[in-house]
Amino acid sequence: MAPKARLVAYKTNWNVQCPTFKTIGSNEIDVMAAFEAAIDDGVDVINYSQASNNSAYLDDGTGIATFHAMKNGILTIAGAGNSGPNAGTAANNYPWVLSVGASTIDRVFSAHGTRFYDFVSKVDVPSELYPLITGADARISGANVSDASLCQGGSIDVTKVTGKILVCRNAGRIVAKDETLASVVARDAGAVGMIFVYEEKIGDGFTLSQFHAVNTIVLSYKDGETLFSYINSTRTPTASISGVTNTLGVKPSPIMGSFSSRGPNQNNPGILKPDVTAPGVDILAACPPEIFQSSYCMKTGTSMATPHVAGIAALIKKVHPDWSTAAIKSAIMTTASPLDNDGMPIRDSNKTSDATPFAYGSGHVKPNMAMDPGLVYDMNQYDYLNFICAYPPESTTLKEFSQQHSYKCPRSFNILDFNYPSISIVNFTGNAIVTRKLKNVGPPGTYVPRIEPPPGVSIMVEPKTLVFSQKDQIIVFKLILTADINHLSTDYIFGSLVWSDAKHVVRSPIIVKAKNK
Question: Which Gene Ontology terms cover its molecular function (predicted)?
Answer without folding.
Answer: serine-type endopeptidase activity
